[in-house]
Design a protein that fits this description.
It is built from 17 helices and eleven strands. It is an alpha/beta fold.
């Protein structure tokens, strides 16, 4: 076809007397070069449909996840503040409740939710299991909520007295990490105690009967036990971690990787509303206690204690400093063979490092 095109062109040239022989040769040469270039460019250039950037679908439903331990998410849900912000954009909000961080992150991986929150411990296990999620912010809470309790008349007076004693806590929880660090602080090893891996529901009756010597627990269970049982505080997370307690084992807010990539503005809106919920609960702790008491079905006096010592309730960007405590926890769990492999919690695939705060 190309040869036929050239022959037709030459026949036409012969009929034009205006061109001299030399001029015709030059013109033909440039004509052939031009066609060659056009064919080469056409063969290398993709079609418009293949070269067009992927279109991000319009978000119409925001799938949120929450659990009872994450006060700010529950306050935001109860007040409907996120719905009010997103309604003008044509975005509705759905909520799914989870029992703990592990199933919440599983649900995120399955597409049931795109945003949620939970303890940092759960993300250590999820990352070790190659789950799909991103830490998008950290939340600071009470430095008094996680505690080591003993019976009021217990002979255990200080942390070194725990040597050889039966200590109960949930395996792989933040309290598991706290007891390891508490023992290290006084020169003891984890092998120096007799650990009993019990959930709060299992540990409560055992503690009341005196079957365990010490109990590691978190709010609101701590506040409930202190109110209703004859207990004494042996130590809490501020005793163990000092002024680093708020960042040593913070909670985190998580989002699906695709959501972080495709809808950064909506992500920022969620974090802004969480900050507002934190400020409101800090400045109105009694009202916050009433709201959460109804949601959690926990006595008001207990929730007032929890909210009164709730800390700054900050929502912080993910930084190296925020992740340092979590890395120490991950390393501890690896050494204790609680997770199957060593992980880098600062891996960029698992964290959103914003250039500026939302």
């Amino acid at each position: 076809m190309f040869t036929r095109l050239i022959n037709q062109f030459l026949d036409g040239i012969k009929k034009i007397s205006l061109f001299q022989h030399h001029d015709i040769k030059v013109f033909i040469l440039f004509f052939i070069i031009g066609i060659g270039l056009n064919l080469a460019i056409a063969s290398c250039t993709p079609s418009n449909s293949a070269n067009a950037p992927a279109q991000v679908p319009k978000l119409t439903v925001l799938k949120m996840g929450h659990q009872k331990g994450m006060a700010l998410l529950n306050i935001m849900k109860a007040q409907g503040s996120l719905e009010k912000r997103l309604q003008p954009l044509g975005i509705s909000v759905t909520w799914n409740e989870f029992s703990s961080t592990a199933p919440l992150l599983d649900g995120m991986g399955a597409g049931a939710i795109v945003f949620g929150g939970g303890g940092g411990t759960g993300s250590v296990f999820a990352q070790a299991g190659d789950k799909s999620f991103v830490r998008v912010a950290a939340g600071t809470g009470s430095t008094r909520g996680s505690a080591i309790l003993v019976q009021e008349n217990s002979p255990i007076k200080t942390l070194p007295d725990l040597k050889g004693k039966k200590v109960a806590f949930a395996k792989g929880s933040g309290q598991h990490y706290i007891i390891v660090r508490a023992l290290e602080k006084v020169g003891l090893k984890f092998s120096d105690i007799k650990p009993l891996y019990l959930t709060p529901a299992e540990a409560l009756p055992a503690f009341e009967r005196g079957d365990i010597d010490a109990w590691l627990i978190w709010d609101p269970y701590t506040a409930e036990a202190e109110r209703k049982l004859r207990t004494r505080l042996l130590a809490d997370n501020s005793t163990v971690f000092g002024d680093k307690a708020p960042l040593e084992s913070p909670s985190f807010y998580y989002a699906a990787p695709d959501f972080v990539r495709d809808y950064p503005d909506i992500l920022k809106t969620i974090l802004q509303e969480l900050e507002k919920a934190g400020s409101w609960s800090r400045e109105n702790y009694q009202d916050s206690a009433k709201l959460l008491s109804k949601l959690y079905k926990i006595e008001l006096k207990t929730m007032e204690t929890v909210e009164k010592r709730g800390g700054k309730r900050e929502v912080l960007p993910v930084t190296d400093e925020v992740l340092s405590g979590l890395q120490r926890m991950a390393d501890t769990f690896y050494e204790l063979k609680i997770i199957p492999k060593k992980i880098d919690v600062k891996d960029k695939n698992y964290n959103w490092f914003p250039k500026e705060k939302w």
